[in-house]
Amino acid sequence: MTDPDGPSGTATAVPEPPEKAAGTRGRRRALRHPLARFLLRRVLIAVLLAWGITVVTFVLTNLVPGDPATANLGQRALGDPAIVAQWRQDHGLDKPLPQQYLIHLGGMLQGDLGVSQQSHRPVSQDLAETVPATLELAGAAIVVSLILGVAFGVVAALRRDRLPDHVLRVLSLIGISVPTFWLALVAFYVFFYRLQITPGSGRIDPGLQAPPPVTGLATVDSALAGQWDVFASAVGHLLTPALVLALYTIGLLTRFTRSAVLEVLGQDYVRAARAKGLPGRVILFRYVLRSALVPIITVAGLAFGSLLSGTVLVEAIFAWPGVGQYAYKSATTLDLPAVMGVGLVVGGVYLVINLIVDVLYGVIDPRVRLQ
Amino acid sequence: MATRSQTAALLVVGALALAACSAGGVKPSSAPQSGAKTLVIDTSFDLKTADPGRTYEPTGLFVGKAVYETLLTFDGADVTKPVPALAESYELSEDGKVLTLKLKKGATFADGSPLTADDVVFSLTRVRDMKGTPSFLLDGVEIAKTDDTTITLTSKAPNPALPYILPNPALGVINSKVAKEHGATTDAGDKAEQYLNTASAGSGPYTIESFNLSSQVVLRANPKYYGAKPAYDRVVIRNVEAATQKLNVQRGDSQVALNLSGDQVTGMPANLQVKKTASANVIFLLANQDSSVSKTTPNAKFVEALRKGVDYAGLLELAGEGSTQAPGIIPSQLLGALPQDQAAKRDVEGAKAALAASGLSNPTVKLEFPSELTVNGLSFQPLAERIQANLKEVGITVDLAPAPVTTALDNYRNGKEELGLWYWGPDYPDPSDYLAFLPGKLVGLRAGWKDGADKAVSAAGDKAATTIGDEARKAAYADVQTKLNASGPFIPLIQPSQNIVTAASVTGLEYHPVWTVDLADLGAK
């Protein structure tokens, strides 16, 4: 018996053992599953995008009219060709550009993001310290945004053209319009300096001993270590920058939720539910919000991206040691490995968020579920 | 049963209470020790490493000074006379080529092991031969151990600057045994930096508790320090933007703010101490002498018009109280600095006359400067704008060309700027550092001033470089600067003020041109 799909030149095909054949068939079936195909497609796109990010960051960093050696060495050292040559050799800048790129790419494929020219440490080590700080800040901000933004949007829609609606619309407009860096400065001045109700800059009080790093999130690590005073300090330090960062997203979500809820409220099935005498709470949560959630989730996914870019300035003002500050410093000193590392991480976060949003569409709305 | 609004209110109150507890400075159980004195210092980091042999940034030198000790040091802010540190005495030979240092007895590293002459030789050789940023400090210097307590440093040419170079924290002595175990070598293959970024291998009054390049460095008093015990048990140095530094120190969240501008320290509350000292950074204008770069700026009369056209008093006003005019390129703190009465003064008519004598009619020049760089909190943009307005009155049109620092530095370094606005801070507090401004030297070339372009200035520089003895050196460097001011392409402008704000409880703080602050000098009341 020959296998029609077997490679040409195969004289006799050896039949697969039954259990192996069943395994192969199982894998093939699994790959034919729409969700598996969807995920596989997403992973392939992610790989392509990651490669694109490396190309763009490499080209842009090398197009900038400036020399990394100038940005990293002192004035005197720059006057000594031996020191400059040693520095270039240490950082692989003595090689032709295509070779430099291939070395970076080869390293990345093996999980090595290179060594930062600024910190002289592996970029992955720098990112392991800075990324959790930013994720903690952005994560807190997005949670606050989702809770407040959706709640405000629903209230505004249910009280359409009445006082709460007018007030919330004005507030959301302010949230969208006010520049984040200005808001951060004002919030720090008012709450920390004037009212003295929030703690100062950084992630915890300087007099406290940081908890042993497990997740890199100060709140979680302090709770895991049972250091409750540090936990209280970490939550306190997180509040103001997270709220400042969240304000834009709250404004955005309020407006989108309001319009989405208003649209659903006018649908026949909502009227029918009302006519059946269902309680208002049931109508809101089962009929209205569920339908309105699709556009809300789309906006929330996009908003998370804007939160990441907003962290650069907020981190600077609140002395928050996150990836935003690291990215800024790396970009201004033409630290290529660090810039590429940050690019990959931010790109990766976007891809993951988009994937989550796509999966959530299917969970919320059966009409968009994959067949 | 609580309603939802009551629950929400409880949550909000709880969150505020957490923030308030944290803000109110509740005595923490995770505080390192009860009763331990902690000092919090806010500064803008430019930190790259804690390895003394690779350190060259202000924050790094500041940390290095606390953790490592050098053979010589300076007493407080006085940089005119090196004094013993790890060396109990030193002597420079009459020809200025051999510096002999006698080691102090009883010095120990933080692990308790004794500090030896071998550690000194290894540390200095490592700095010289690793080809890191501070390697130039010991370029051409032979380091040898004569006996267990004597070190000799031999230079091929007279090197009277060496005693002023040795206090640089980059030349801190490391525990060679520990460092070698972690990859330290005396060549470019050295691998000890990673270890030295996480642990102390020094003999200074503090050790490293934690070191994070982007957020904070925590130092702890060295329990085995053989000298006077420092006043603070723990020092937290945080990376904070200047605007936030101001609020932190005013609120009491930190006790020292290092990077405030003149405007920011105006109107500080009476319970804070404000120290305004002219920094050792000299901001200057350079007029390129290379005719392939500019047809205008090599003209000597044009340079004279620039020198007379600038309103120095106006620039000082911008820089704020504590700033001072720079009469020469050597800052006021250093040996050989010119007295204030030799500082240039504005003379608009004289500038117009010089411009007329130059033969240039309504010249237009491009002024390049780093757009985002600040020196002691002072930005270059307002200075450039003021110079532009000053020179407009004289008849010179200045086109401002700000650029990001990496771009601007490239042009400056390659000698491509027609007119440049830059600053120079001392690598070591000796006037010989400023010989870089002579024709054919590092900064001279950046102004297109090639070797042999001004033989009188070069001769004066050669003489100053080999002169021995403080008084003779003072006169020699004054002569160099007078000649440089008369015919050179540089126009020294100002030394901006270094403004340091401290809580009333902090005592003994002195601004130092090399390491900013010596933590060992700080006291508490």
UniProtKB/TrEMBL annotation, chain A:
SUPFAM superfamilies: MetI-like (SSF161098). The keyword Coiled coil does not apply. PROSITE patterns: ABC_TM1. It is a multi-pass membrane protein. Residues 131-361 form the ABC transmembrane type-1 domain. Belongs to the binding-protein-dependent transport system permease family. Residues 1-28 are annotated as: Disordered. It is found in: Cell membrane. InterPro entries: BPD_transp_1_N, MetI-like, MetI-like_sf. Keywords: Cell membrane, Membrane, Transmembrane, Transmembrane helix, Transport. The chain crosses the membrane at residues 38-60, 137-158, 170-192, 230-253, 293-318, 338-364. One of its GO terms (molecular function) is dipeptide transmembrane transporter activity. GO terms for cellular component: plasma membrane. This is Peptide/nickel transport system permease protein. It holds the Pfam family BPD_transp_1.
TrEMBL record, chain B:
Keywords: Signal, Transport. PROSITE patterns: PROKAR_LIPOPROTEIN (PS51257). It is found in: Cell envelope. InterPro entries: Peptide/Ni-bd, SBP_5, SBP_5_dom. Residues 1-19 form the signal peptide. Coiled coil: none annotated. SUPFAM superfamilies: Periplasmic binding protein-like II. PANTHER family: PERIPLASMIC BINDING COMPONENT OF ABC TRANSPORTER (PTHR30290), PERIPLASMIC OLIGOPEPTIDE-BINDING PROTEIN-RELATED (PTHR30290:SF10). This is Peptide/nickel transport system substrate-binding protein. It comes from Nonomuraea dietziae.
